[in-house]
Amino acid sequence: MKSAKTPQEVHALLAAAFNTKDLNVIMNVYDANGIIFPEPGKEVSGRAEFEEAVKSICAVPGVMEIKTVYCLQSGDVALGRSEWTITDQGKTQVAAKGMEVMRQQPDGNWKIIIDHAFGAEANLVA
């Protein structure tokens, strides 16, 4: 199974995994012990809830594209800022600006430990 060898590869790997709709490939991009915000204000953690959140994202029809705005790394931790879309037949289904924290795993690969898919939206209030 393909893994990200650098934090800069994580966004492209996540988009490719989403586009296969293969839950195992998508889950391999994440550390399921982390957290994901699949929608504003909704925090999900724990493997079962994490998988359900990923399944709901996979249910959105279309192709995901993720643009890496930046990726800052310090040792085995990195912060990514992304702009992502899911389009279907030329129509945008979802578009957002996200933030992701990634950690290098003991095997050297990088996984997302915090995925705030809407975390960089200008109107998001804590």
TrEMBL record:
A family per Pfam: SnoaL_2
InterPro entries in the cross-refs: NTF2-like_dom_sf, SnoaL-like
Every SnoaL-like domain range: 12-110
Name by which UniProt lists this protein: YybH family protein
Record lineage: Bacteria, Pseudomonadati, Bacteroidota, Sphingobacteriia, Sphingobacteriales
